[in-house]
């Protein structure tokens, strides 16, 4: 009997040609893929998916946030997409966005951990951590930021001091064309550096300039097709060369820099007195020593500090660069801002947050820069924490959630001229008017932790620069509103002329 079975198997095997085996393997993989992709009843609609890659290649990587808007038109305010086998949904419109970020926030409070994040941050840090780690780190960071800056007068003074350095550096350009990108990055970064590291870095410091360059490159590399492919097929991409490997190398260098600063702190650390965020974190780590469940340990100090350094540098400086670009492109608006500054302050007075109340036009211009700059066009992603029903659709646990801030900031029902720079959007009878559909910092429990800091930075840097200079396009050079896709939507680098005001 056994012999008969054996010869039957041998005959079958001989009859199978390599082509048949391959076909069988493909059918098997397709079936597995189909099973993996089974979605519950009432799952949101979405464009048809291809096997294995899902909708990965249906998005334009150069302007993903714009290509999504086509799908909104076709599938509505809640639709689904798939990247590899990662399910995701896109949420559009203020009522649904509020439902997700405020009313049902517990079900959407997590971040999806992408393979890149997992490899670089290992579920640690602040921006992309979840659960117990996130709660502990966010609570501590908020308190520490408040103690070392946020909400305190000293913070404003720090920003004013830094502005003076920036004005000097820009003044040295003597009205000639220059690229303001890294000067602004450095100035803005110095504020978060002084809170976290307890020091600022000179604009000529080559090592710090290199660090800012690495940070800028990281934000760009992370959105390249290579890195997106890494997030979908990490095992394959691990073995391939490409920009994703450079991303890992850059993160390594950034981590090493922060680790060195921490080592220096430890050398002259006085447990009785915290000079900055790192000192305070070291104190907190001491308190939790011996508690295995605590998320306060040295590795997390590196990740947390890196997150603050990253979030505190790229966002505000990108917004300021948009601001200067819009001023150079709209000279009549720039003149009105300068007239308002001159009315409220004399030449020797530095702008401060107390003067914002008396500058409704300037405040409206800064808000409009944020609306049009739209630097985080799809917010920072969230993840469904438990099976959830949203607008009648079923969203399984683990679904990635994208909130469509672009549609909100360009909604023709909300904004008189949605695609044109127009500070009147934030004015009513000459007074500043808040707008509900303006959410650059997001809302809810997991909204931007640095909103207050960013608002102070934006106001003081922007008004101080316009008090001293008029920004113009260089002669014979055309400025454009083109953006470079990176983790923040940034203007392509332009040269500007900063003409000193008489
Ligand atoms: C114009 C400047 C800025 C903008 C537009 C901005 C915007 C945002 C947005 C949209 C989020 C995601 C919120 C969410 O998921 O609901 C976020 C998160 C965050 N931001 Fe900002 N941000 C800015 C400046 C800053 C600054 C200066 C800091 C420095 C302290 C900072 C620190 C953070 C952190 C730590 C998170 C993660 C919060 C968490 O996951 O709990 N941001 N920001």
UniProtKB/TrEMBL annotation:
It comes from the Eukaryota. GO terms for molecular function: heme binding; iron ion binding; oxidoreductase activity, acting on paired donors, with incorporation or reduction of molecular oxygen, reduced flavin or flavoprotein as one donor, and incorporation of one atom of oxygen. The keyword Isomerase does not apply. Its cofactor is heme. Heme binds at residue 448. InterPro entries: Cyt_P450, Cyt_P450_CS, Cyt_P450_E_grp-I, Cyt_P450_E_grp-I_CYP2J-like, Cyt_P450_sf, Cytochrome_P450_fam2. It is found in: Endoplasmic reticulum membrane; Microsome membrane. GO terms for cellular component: endoplasmic reticulum membrane. PANTHER family: CYTOCHROME P450 2J2, CYTOCHROME P450 508A4-RELATED. This is Cytochrome P450 family 2 subfamily J member 2. It comes from Bos indicus x Bos taurus. The lineage of its organism: Eukaryota, Metazoa, Chordata, Craniata, Vertebrata.
């Amino acid at each position: 009997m056994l012999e008969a079975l054996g010869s039957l198997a041998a005959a079958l095997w001989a009859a199978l040609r390599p082509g048949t085996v391959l076909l069988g393997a493909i059918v098997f993989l397709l079936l597995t893929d189909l099973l993996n992709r089974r979605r519950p009843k009432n799952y949101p609609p979405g464009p048809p998916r291809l096997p294995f890659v899902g909708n990965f290649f249906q998005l334009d990587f150069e302007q993903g946030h714009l290509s999504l808007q086509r799908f909104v038109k076709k599938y509505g305010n809640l639709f689904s997409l798939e990247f590899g086998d990662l399910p995701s949904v896109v949420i559009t419109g203020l009522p649904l966005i509020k439902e997700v970020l405020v009313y049902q926030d517990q079900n959407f409070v997590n971040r999806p951990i992408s393979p890149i994040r997992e490899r670089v941050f290992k579920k640690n840090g602040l921006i992309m951590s979840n659960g117990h780690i996130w709660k502990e780190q966010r609570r501590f960071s908020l308190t520490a930021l408040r103690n070392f800056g946020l909400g305190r007068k000293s913070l404003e003074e720090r920003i004013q001091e830094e502005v003076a350095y920036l004005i000097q550096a820009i003044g040295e350009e003597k009205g000639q064309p220059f690229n303001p990108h890294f000067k602004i990055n450095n100035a803005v970064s110095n504020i978060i550096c002084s809170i976290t590291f307890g020091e600022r870095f000179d604009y000529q410091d080559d090592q710090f300039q290199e660090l800012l360059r690495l940070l800028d490159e990281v934000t760009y590399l992370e959105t390249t097709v290579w890195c997106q492919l890494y997030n979908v097929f990490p095992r394959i991409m691990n073995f391939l060369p490409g920009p994703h490997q450079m991303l890992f190398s850059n993160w390594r260098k950034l981590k090493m820099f922060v680790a060195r600063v921490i080592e220096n702190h430890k050398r002259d650390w006085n447990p009785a007195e915290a000079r900055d965020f790192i000192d305070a974190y070291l104190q907190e780590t001491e308190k939790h020593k011996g508690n295995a469940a605590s998320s306060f340990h040295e590795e997390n100090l590196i990740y947390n500090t890196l997150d603050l350094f990253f979030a505190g540098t790229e966002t505000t400086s990108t917004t300021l660069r948009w601001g200067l670009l819009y001023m150079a492109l709209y000279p009549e608006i720039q003149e009105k801002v300068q007239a308002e500054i001159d009315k409220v302050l004399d030449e020797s007075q530095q702008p401060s947050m107390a003067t914002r109340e008396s500058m409704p036009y300037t405040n409206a211009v800064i808000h409009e820069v944020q609306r049009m700059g739209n630097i985080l066009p799809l917010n920072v992603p969230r993840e469904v924490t438990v099976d959830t029903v949203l607008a009648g659709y079923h969203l399984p646990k683990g679904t990635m959630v994208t909130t469509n801030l672009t549609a909100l900031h360009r909604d023709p029902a909300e904004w008189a001229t949605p695609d044109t720079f127009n500070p009147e959007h934030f004015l009513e009878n000459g007074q500043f008017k808040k707008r509900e559909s303006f959410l650059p910092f997001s809302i809810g429990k997991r909204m931007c932790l640095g909103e207050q800091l960013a608002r102070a930075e934006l106001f003081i840097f922007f008004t101080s620069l316009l008090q001293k200079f008029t920004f113009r396009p260089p002669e014979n050079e055309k400025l454009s509103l083109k953006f470079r896709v990176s983790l923040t939507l940034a203007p392509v680098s332009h040269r500007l002329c900063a003409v000193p005001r008489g």
